[in-house]
Amino acid sequence: MQPLKIKYLEDRLRLQFFRDHPFEAFRPVSIVEGEVVEPEHPVRGKDWTRLSQRTKNPMAEDAVLFAANLHRYHEVSLTVAYTRAVAEFRALRAEYDIANAFARMEAESYGTMFSSEVDRTFEKEDKFFRSTERKKALDESALRARKRWRAILNLDSGMGNTWSRGQGVY
Q1: Exposed end of the chain (fewer CB within 10 Å): N or C?
Q2: Could you please report the per-residue DSSP string of 39-59?
Q3: Quick count: other Cβ atoms within 10 Å of Cβ 125?
Q4: How far is CA 54 from CA 48, 68, 72, 87, in A?
Q5: What pTM value is reported for the model?
Q6: 57, 93 contact by CB (below 8 A)
Q7: Which distant-in-sequence residues (6+ apart) come within 8 Å of 10 by Cβ?
Q8: Gap between the Cα atoms of 81 and 87, Å rounded
Q9: pLDDT per residue over 65-85, tens digit each?
């Protein structure tokens, strides 16, 4: 006898969402949690009629939960709920991206210089490796290692002290 498979509506919606938006899986998401898990958002159930009521920059999970909410509490078919959630997701994401682009252009017009993500990462690494504590720790550990290990060379290995240049070996 096999146990019944557990199926959730959100799993079906999430699967379809990532089929339709495969690059959303590559969008960086912070997975750091505080000491407690955040309480559920106060806008839910019958009160949640627009995706923008919870956030102006929605994530994939927001769209999935919104579609499930529309289907459960507003008696909308799953197809219509998913279509509406995706449309609102795309509109909010486009609005957010355009606002960011204009804010960046405005800041650049005032002389702000923005570096790329790769440049920022290299700067962080350089800052870490240049730090005085790091240099001091490396110098101390190298000094300890040199004191701990010394080469012991036995110059007379029984084969003579001269190099034969490969002659007379055989």
Answers
A1: N
A2: PPPS--GGG---GGGT-SS--
A3: 10
A4: 8, 15, 18, 16
A5: 0.62
A6: yes
A7: 64, 65, 68
A8: 10
A9: 999 999 999 999 999 999 999
